[in-house]
Amino acid sequence: MSAKWYLGTGAQNDVVISTSIHIARNITQFPFPATLSLQDKLKVNAIVKDAASSVTDYRFNYYEMKMLSQSEVVSLAERHLVSPEFASSRDGRALLLTEDEAVSIMLNEEDHIRLQVMYAGFALDEAYRTADRIDTSLNTKLDFAFDDRLGFLSQDPASLGTGMKASVVLHLPGLVTTSQITRLITTVSKLGLSLRGSYGEGAAAKGDLFRLSNTITLGISEKAAIENLKSIALQIAAQERVAREEIFKAPVTEDRIYRAYGVLKYARLIDTAEFMELISLVRLGAVKGIINMECSEIEAMMIQMQPATISLSVDRPLDRIERDKLRAQLVRHNLK
Question: In angstroms, rounded to a whole number, what is the distance separating the alpha carbons of residues 157 and 249?
């Protein structure tokens, strides 16, 4: 079995947790999914599944969403393999997924095809090359809807043009602690980018995790969008490092980190919100070398301790207390 992508460690990993490229495509001979009959959605699924089987070097597992349990579907969303919108309605929808979960293709969400490539760390160029290669391969088998003036067509006007959204997930405890995050969210929005919680919204993002993404897809090339995102992401990472140096001048920061580690190490009940708050501090301590853990171990925990995903680990439904008890038990086991 292939190791999951998030068990690796990429470039700029002290701040940048992961990179993803999303590409939206539609097949010319079918209406957009919102007006497709169930029978035609199943045809789209079959056609794309067949096209994906010929993509060189990639083997996709195929899942019909209606065949999955509620916990399995929600867990896919928690792991960012499907969107919450995709998970909310399962009829006629399917997922193509590689064993390492680095490449996923949602079928019949807002568009016929939503291709996603995810890598650990700061890897925009690499993720784009992979996504572009898979997109090109699919295009040799499928006739994608394209207009000379508008570019690739989408049901969502915000995706017209390249149909590509690139993003990086950033760990920004320094900027949150120094109260710079709200101003930063406003600033990047003026640059054609969005900065919002990866687990949660705005400045209240869980675990101090923020997703920086491009918002403009029309009138700009894919490579230009990536270069813009790359530049702003590196600037934010530099600001975060400065902010971290500032907060570590106060003894309270190191104290908070060790207290967070102590609670995680010895607590018997931990809910998701508390876990994300504490593991963010532990990750900061690991980056600074005062906590003996690898960042990849912490990233894996952030994914594996989400509510539906943790329930799947025991293959039975759990109520809230059972889930919080199991989370605490697993966290104690994982901490050195």
Answer: 47
pLDDT 10s digits, 271-313: 999 999 999 999 999 999 999 999 989 999 999 999 999 999 8
| Residues of the chain where predicted confidence (pLDDT) is lower than 70 | 1-2, 199-204, 336
Residue in this structure with the two tokens 């934010």, named with its chain if needed: 236
**Is the pTM value of this prediction over 0.90?**
yes
Q: How far is CA 148 from CA 39, 111, 145, 222, 311, in A?
A: 30, 19, 10, 16, 48
Separation of alpha carbons 133 and 127, rounded Å:
10
Is-contact 113 152, C-beta < 8 A?
no
Residues 109, 169: Cα–Cα separation, whole Å = 23
**Structural tokens at position 231:** 């530049």
List helix spans (H) across the chain: 38-52, 70-78, 84-88, 124-141, 173-177, 181-189, 222-247, 251-266, 272-288, 295-304, 307-312, 320-334
Q: Measure the CA–CA gap between 113 and 116, rounded to whole angstroms.
A: 10
Is the distance from CB of 122 to CB of 16 less than 8 angstroms? yes
